Each structure stands twice: as C-alpha cells, then as structure tokens.
Amino acid sequence: MHPLAQATTQPLPLPEVDWRAIAPELALAVAGVVLLLVVAFWPRAGRGVLAGLTLAGLAAAAALTVWNWDLERVAFEGAVSLDGITRYARAVLLAVGALATLMVAQGDSREGEPDDSPPEVFPLLLFALLGMVLLAAASDLLVVFIALEILSLSLYVMAGETRRLAAQEAAMKYFLLGAFSSAFLLYGIALCYGATGSTNLLEIADATGDPTADGTLLLAGVGLLAVGFLFKVSAVPFHMWTPDVYQGTPTPVAAFMAAATKVAGFAVFLRVFAGALGGLVVSWRPVIAGAAVLTMLVGAALAVVQTDLKRMLAYSSISHAGYLLVGVAAAATVPAGVSASMFYLLTYAFMVMGAFMVVQYVSRLGPPDDDAIGERSSLEDYRGLARRHPWAAGLLAVFMLALTGIPPLSGFWAKYYVFLAGIEAGLTWLVVVAVISSVISAFFYLRVLVVAYLQEPVGDPGAETAPGRTPALGVALGLAGLLTVAIGLAPEALIAAARSAERILG
Amino acid sequence: MPLMYPLVFAAFLFSAGVYGVLARRNAVMVLMSIELMLNAVNVNLVAFNAYLRDELVSGQVFALFVIAVAAAEVGIGLAIVLLIFRNRETVNIDEVDLLRW
Questions:
Q1: Residue A464's pLDDT band (cuts 50, 70, 90)
Q2: SS3 (DSSP) at A237
Q3: Would you say A138 and A80 are in contact if contact means Cβ atoms under 8 Å apart?
Q4: Which end of chain B is more exposed for a tag (fewer CB within 10 A), N or C?
C-alpha cells in the first residue's frame, strides 16, 4: 500500500488547542486587525487616536503576558513552548513596541511635510510584533519560519512607506536580502527535517543525540540554518544590508528594527542552537565564535569611519550582535550564557531605541534639507547640541556611554555578564577580542559627544523650528533614559528574572 | 527512486537561484531567482517526506506553507519594485544607489 494511503487509515493525532498559551499573540493579532479596520473605515482618524489604540493593544498583550507568567509548558503538540525565554522576550518586545509606537506617533519629519509614514504603520507595527513574539516562543521549525515571515513582511512595508526615495530604496534592499536569507534558512530547515525526520525542536534535540543519525546531512542543515539566522541578526559576513537599511528607513522604524528584531532573532537563535542543537555544540561553536570575532571587529572598525549618526548606529548594532554571539557560543554548555544574552538584549533594546530617539529629535530641527538622501542625521547636525538643546544632549550622552559600556549604566552590566559567561565556557580568547572591540567602539561613541559638547554650533540657532508637535517623543526619550540608568543602578532584579530563562524547553 | 535524484535536482535548482540573485541586475529577475530557491526547498521537503514515510506528512504541509508565504512575499516584493520604478524609471539594482550599497 502507498505510504500516504496507509497514513490516512490511522487516526490523525489532532493537537489540543491551548488558547491560553498564545493569548498575548492573539491579543496582538486582534488589535492589529481592529486597527487595520479603523484605518480603512475612518481615514480621518488622527495619529493620536491610532497610537492610543495601538498602546491599548500592547497593554492587553502585556496583561496577558503577566497572566501567563508562571506557565511552563509545551503547547500545540510541541509547536509553541512557554518558558523563560518566551516570557522574557515577550516582556522586552512589548516594551520596545510601546516606545516605537510613541516614536511613530511623533512622526518622522517636520510638520506639514508629506513624508510621514501613513497611518497603516500602526497595524503593521502590531503585526511585526506578533511575528517577533511568536518567533521567541516557536518550538517547531515551521512556526519559526511562519513567525519570521510575519515579522519580515511587515517590516519590509514599514521601511518603504514614505515618499522619501531613500526609504523606498532601503525597503527594496531589505526585501531582496531578507528573502534571499529566508531561502537559505528554509533550505537548512529542509535538510534538518530530512536528517532527523521531524521539524519539532524537541524531537530534533533527541535525534542529534542519536549517533546513528545521518551526520553529514544534519551538519549541512545546521550550517544553512546558521547562515539564515546570522543574516537576520546582521552578523558579519552577512551584514551588508544593515547600514543602508537603517540609514534609509524612517528613524522610528529603524529604531524598532534595530531593537526588536535583535531580541526576537537572538531568542530563536538561542532556542535552536543552544537548545535543540546543543548536542552538536562541538561542530557549530567554532563557526559561531568565528562569526562573533568578525562581527565585533568589522562592526566597530567600520563605525569609526562613518559621518552619519544613523549609519554609525547601524555599524554599532552589528558590533553589538557580535557580543551577543559570544553569549550564544557560550550558552550551549553554560546556562548563564542564555540569561546573560537575554539580559543583554533587554539593555541593548532600550539603549539603541534611546539613541535613535535623539536622532529623530535632532532630525526635526533646522530647515528642511531637500538634498539630504535620508533624514538629517549627519554628525554636522549635532555640533553644539549641548548649547542648543541641553536635555537632548544629556540623554544622547547617557545612551552613548551606555552603548560604550561605561559603569554604572546598563550597557556595562550587559557586557559584564556576557563576558563572564564566555569565560565560564572556556572562550577566554573570544572575550579578549570582545574587550578590544569595546575599546575601539569607545572612540566613535565618544566622538559623537565631542561633537555635541565641545564644538561650536553652525548657523543661527534662532532659525530652528520648534521640535515638538506632540509630547510623545519626549515621553519616549524620558522612559528610555530612565530605564537605561535604572537598569544600570539595579541590575540584580532583572538578571534574576533572566536566570529563569536558562532552562530551555525544546 | 533513490533519494539522491531529487536532492541533487533541488541542490542544482537552489544553486541556479543563488547564481541568479548574485548575477542578475534586474530586480524582477532577482525576485524570480528567489522563487527558484524557495521551490528547490519545496522539492527537498516533499522528497524527504516520501523517503521518511512521515505519518504526519510534515514535509508536504511545510511545502504548502512555503508556497503560501512565497506568494505573499512576491506580492510585497513586486509592490516595492513597482514603487521604485514609478519614482526612478528603473529597476536595475545597480542604479538604485542613493545609499552606499
């Protein structure tokens, strides 16, 4: 009998539908659809209304996340798993989503200019977050793929949604390279399925411990999976798209991409590599460690020569991906690697969001610059910022010092715990490279502060337009600054919460 | 049929797609090459499904999901390419170079 015909004679094991397990995702999906309908049927709705509805959706998802906080189980026949990584990533992603909503509500440009993102950006933000939250919880390669595509497709549209040519170009580059990397990831998934007979991460974990499994096929699959994930988290040598995309897209979207996609991408990276493929650590660790070295050094070295702050932040985000890869390389053998990486993601998300908020604030000052390819984010625009806008300059200093890793700000503790986990895993040489890269990165972060504090402002400061249209950006800036300082002063509670993420289900 | 035939065929198809993405300069051709890569993955998934005699037919189900997502992806991709063409009158990815590539 044909194998397929035979299969149909047996009762099909239907998965139990566990609504509670995916309640936050459902809330985001419902909120996204509601907002889409609001935008479609009430085109005159103000940005304030839409932002309020988006924040309400995020609040509902956050409440459900808290309701599910103590839940530890595998739902939908192993397709979704609720564990420490899931709930930690959910909390961080929803907070990042709220800050991004405030930035989008403020708009990307000066008043009266036509290149604000259209109102559809709010539902798309919710759909992208839905994909990210689901990606962090995915415990089956099919769900990983679907979640990745939900978030990527939403972000491609968000990137290109303005009339600015640079944004459209960024969207095209992001799309072509994103789809290219998805194909590599899929090929890796197909080979892993062929080698282990399952797409479920729990079953793959069992199969990798089995010495009779087809090793070559599995290793080829793992290699292609690594290429796909390294593309998504923008690690060298798959980083080429990052600077162009971050520079071209509207600043709120770039901030959201830089913070949230890293959180979701590294959550799934940890779950797949440190969790399911932990048995093959000897095979993949040299590859990930090598990528970490290249990512840290190339990111830091290229950031030094940038003259545009958004582009510099893109290269800095590449080098931060390198530090996170140190955590991933350590995580398979040292559980502290998982918690250190999750804590790093938490602090990094708020630092980088804050830095992009200052970019957004400054790009709205000064006369419109029609020749600028992107928004006003050249280092020239920051000359004498401390004299013109002391609060913005002060917050810029906080975020730059935190990104450098100066104690007592949050970035220091993030690096400290990741380096500690690396040494514990016996990767001391990798940590030495990471410290060298931190020293290089201090140069370009501090140069921004030199420009802002020590150089004379150019032009007539009186000609600047009033920056504020709504208080949204100010609130967001205050929150990001407060979190960066507060996490730095009292990291213990959050690192303790991250420790609960150390045991990976599947 | 030995498993090797469809696997080699899929590897060839995937490589042709990768070559197309890297060598073609027309954005629409690049999109088509990406579709070729995704279809190579589908061949792989279905072949493995048949070889493993998977009772849950996860390989075939996965292939269906890939087809659906690829359709959504190409929809968005063509929309972006159309947007670029309407503003620049070109879809050559070498001429779309406002940002340093």
A1: low
A2: coil
A3: yes
A4: N
pLDDT of amino acid A2: 58
Please tell me the distance in Å from A244's CA to the nearest CA on chain B.
6
Q: How big is the A-B interface in CB pairs under 8 Å?
A: 124
Whether B99 is covered by a domain: the verdict is no
How far apart, in whole angstroms, are the C-alpha atoms of residue A169 and residue A362? 23
pLDDT of residue A56: 97
CB A339 within 8 A of CB A390: no
B77 and A198 in contact by Cβ < 8 A?
A: no
pLDDT digits (tens, 9 = 90+) for B15-56: 999 999 999 999 999 999 999 999 999 999 999 999 999 888
Q: How far apart are CA A368 and CA A276, in angstroms?
A: 51
Residues in chain B: 101
* Number of CB atoms found within 10 A of residue A454's CB: 10
Question: Which of A353, A350, A475 lies closest to A410, judged by CA?
Answer: A350
Q: Do A179 and B83 touch (CB under 8 A)?
A: no
Least confident of A82-91, A181-190, A379-388: A379-388
Q: Taking a C-beta distance cutoff of 8 angstroms, is the pair A78, A71 a contact?
A: no
Determine the structural domain holding residue B32 and report its residue range.
Answer: 4-88
Is there a domain that residue B54 lies in? yes
Partners of residue B81 in chain A, C-beta under 8 Å:
172
B33 near B15, Cβ under 8 Å? Answer: no
Which CATH number covers residue B79?
A: 1.10.287.3510
Give me A375's structure tokens: 């928004």
Contact A80, A137 (CB under 8 A): yes
Token duo for residue A470 = 């709504």
CA distance A217 to chain B (A): 11
The Cα B39–Cα B22 span in angstroms is 18
Closest CA of chain A from B66, distance in Å: 9
Which distant-in-sequence residues (6+ apart) come within 8 Å of A496 by Cβ? none
Amino acid occupying residue A46: G
C-alpha angle A496/A502/A504, rounded to 5°? Answer: 145
Establish if B81 belongs to a structural domain.
Answer: yes
Tokens of A491: 């990291």
Residues of B in contact with A183 (CB under 8 A): 14, 17, 34, 37-38, 41
Tokens describing residue A51: 């932002």
Chain centroid, CA B28 distance in Å: 12
- Categorise residue B53: left if φ over 0, alpha if ψ from -120 to 50, beta otherwise: left
Substitution target in B4, B22, B80 with the highest count of A β-carbons within 10 Å is B80
Overall number of domains in chain B: 1
Residue A200: DSSP 8-state:
B
With an 8 Å Cβ cutoff, are A176 and B93 in contact? yes
B66/A179 CB distance under 8 A: no
**What is the per-residue pLDDT for A9?**
61
Collapsing DSSP to helix, strand or coil, B64 comes out as helix
Q: Is residue B95 part of a domain?
A: no
Place of tokens 């996860």: B58
Both structure tokens of B69: 């997502």
Q: Is A161 on the interface with B (CB under 8 A)?
A: no
ipTM of the assembly?
Answer: 0.96
Q: Give dist(CA A259, CA A245) in Å, integer.
A: 14
- Provide the 3-class DSSP secondary structure of residue B26: strand
First-to-last alpha carbon distance for chain B, in angstroms, is: 45
